[in-house]
Specification:
Layout (H helix, E strand, L loop, with lengths): L10 H52 L26 H4 L2 E2 L2 E7 L2 E2 L2 E2 L2 E7 L9 E5 L5 E3 L9 E2 L2
Antiparallel strand pairs: 1-2, 2-5, 3-4, 5-6, 6-7, 7-8
Length: about 160
Amino acid sequence: MHKAREQGFSLIELLIVVAIILIIAAIAIPNFIRSRITANEASAVAALRTIDTACVNYANTYGVGYPASLATLGSSGVATSTSADLLDNVVAGGMKSGYTFTYTAGPSAGGMISTYSVTANPVTPGQTGVRYFFTDETFVIRFNATAQASASDSPIQ
């Protein structure tokens, strides 16, 4: 009596399929990580532009110069000089898309703050972002590829 041939995949066939999937994953994962870093950096630059715009709007609306803190630009319901409702609370909280935003107000002269600076640093350098960003009251966004950016670094293109 002949035994009916069993149906299914052999171990070799399954190993070949698994090997092909691993090769495809090895190619795709680094590209995915690079695209995520690029997206995080683009989000950080966009947030810095938004912060610059919010600072100008704040200065024009309240007549006291630039805000004293990033949180001042956020919202608590009603727009006031201490809660201006010019930024969403995620950015006003100082962190978005793998970047930490640090706002530094300049000195107050006669109740007016005439300068400020903002840095955007990756939360985990090399994983959430590669470049560091900086902007100030000149509204020029600058970057540094190795350390925290400052006013002396190159502007982004």
